[in-house]
Specification:
The chain is α/β, with parallel strands linked by helices and about 260 residues long. Strands 2-1-3-5-7 form a 5-stranded parallel sheet, with helices on both faces. A two-stranded antiparallel sheet has the order 4-6. Strands 8-9 form a two-stranded antiparallel sheet. It has 2 domains: about 180 residues, 3-Layer(aba) Sandwich (Rossmann fold), CATH 3.40.50; about 60 residues, Alpha-Beta Plaits (2-Layer Sandwich). The protein is built from 12 helices and 9 strands. The protein binds iron/sulfur cluster (2 copies). The site of one iron/sulfur cluster has 16 residues, from helix 11.
Length: about 260
């Protein structure tokens, strides 16, 4: 089930010829079982979790029949974090929050695949705009993408991610569809984007379709649309990368879009 992707990520514990009979049987049992998924909520608005749990038709069979949710605040009555196949991590991590930092390190230890679920976990998104000083936790000043702290295997962007991309990603993991997953693996390291990337990698490449998503997604209003194209005010840009990640013509390969659209 998850073997192909684990192999791809270099996570196989031992070469097959060195595995004992019991180990081979254990792996075969694991391959037959439903994947165990945990949900970890760090710093974000909870919109990603709502996208997962809302009763969208497309997600109902996935949540009830294809996977076992083994960990998650409000989803499972369990305090100790168990071993799991996939951990979906929502939210960025606050560097001054010891509890969140510890939880993230534990996730990395207990989960086969760690997924940055949603734009806050993947890029920091609007939490990067924090300057601290909030009444409850005035020392919470710095919020970073989780890949700045632990190794992350996949990033599913979106604020929140759509039910379609959630379902397709889980199915791609189950089927080992590396073509589908590769752009999201590449996106993991994309945590230092700036508004200029839109100009050089989208507009200058004649890929922009003038949809305005970048301007709508920028929380500092550094992007405005002029004559159907984005213009970046670099003085306002906080380098969160959200405009680039949300742009439908940026990181997702055009040939894959055409394939999905049947073109
Ligand atoms: S232009 Fe806005 S959304 Fe884009 S990286 Fe800068 S602050 Fe973030
Ligand atoms: S989101 Fe991308 S395609 Fe849409 S206007 Fe901005 S740069 Fe152009």
């Amino acid at each position: 089930m998850l073997a192909r992707i684990k192999e791809f990520l270099g996570m196989e514990a031992k070469p097959k010829e060195e595995a004992s009979e019991q180990e081979v049987e254990k792996v075969a049992e694991e391959e037959k079982a439903k994947p165990r998924i945990g949900y970890i909520h760090l710093s974000g608005c909870t919109g990603d979790g709502m996208s997962l749990t809302e009763n969208y038709d497309i997600l109902a069979p996935l949540l009830t029949e294809m996977i076992d949710i083994v960990y998650g605040q409000t989803l499972v009555d369990l305090w100790e974090m168990p071993e799991m196949d996939i951990a979906l991590v929502e939210g960025s991590v606050c560097l001054q929050d010891d509890h969140s930092m510890k939880e993230l390190l534990e996730v990395r230890e207990k989960a086969g695949l760690v997924v940055a679920f949603g734009s806050c976990a993947a890029t920091g998104c609007f939490t990067r705009y924090s300057r601290g000083g909030q009444q409850a936790n005035p020392n919470h000043e710095s919020f970073v993408p989780i890949a700045d702290v632990v190794k992350v295997d996949l990033a599913i962007p979106g604020c929140p991610p759509s039910p379609e991309i959630i379902a397709k990603t889980v199915v791609a993991v189950l089927n080992g569809d590396m073509d589908y997953l590769q752009p999201m693996m590449d996106l993991v390291g994309y945590t230092e984007a700036c508004g200029c990337d839109l100009q050089t990698k989208v507009v200058n490449q004649a890929l922009c379709i003038g949809c305005g998503t970048c301007a709508m997604s920028c929380q500092t209003r550094a992007v405005t649309m002029t004559n159907g194209r984005p213009e970046i005010n670099e003085d306002r840009c906080i380098k969160c990368g959200i405009c680039y990640v949300q742009c439908p013509r940026s990181w997702w390969p055009a040939d894959r879009i055409n394939q999905d659209l049947g073109l």
